[in-house]
Amino acid sequence: MNFKPEEAIEILERTPQTLSQLLTGLSIEWFNCNEGENTWNAFDVVGHLIEGEKNNWLPRIKMILTKGATEPFPPFDRFSQLNQNDGKTMEQLLNEFADSRRANLETLRQIINSETDFEQTGMHPEFGIVKLREQISTWVAHDLTHISQIARVLAKRYQDDVGPWKAYLRILAD
């Protein structure tokens, strides 16, 4: 087992600044590109990360700590951000994400007892019994998945422009 809470938090703390460094100040065209019909662009992904901060990660962690596996987590709508961020800028979303993440990590540090809590369990509506350390590990892997997704979507904007080098660019593989 590789899970160490302090190492998990290292990634969770860095995700907002990583995305901010990558996305702040880019032309709108970068935010509009996606991988085709029914796929997300960078704007959608950042909105999704905000929804996770509000309605997934910390609320489920709190349920594990207070209710255990006595009742399932409420379902998480992975697509709700698609209807909530009209009129916002990328910078507004990045700031909201950074603020939410900062507050959630502060709360996490306050409510977790690292000696006893990581093996506590909750009830996932699809997977059944899950451990707190699995929830936090998934939070980290989820961040990294979406950082990778954003990089891939941005790269694919130039997939037709790279010419023969596409054969060497794994990020552009179909």
UniProtKB/TrEMBL annotation:
Originating species: Bacillus haynesii
Source organism, top-level taxon: Bacteria
Residues in coiled coil: none
Name of protein: DinB-like domain-containing protein
Pfam families, sorted: DinB_2 (PF12867)
Location of the DinB-like domain: 12-150
InterPro entries: DinB-like, DinB/YfiT-like
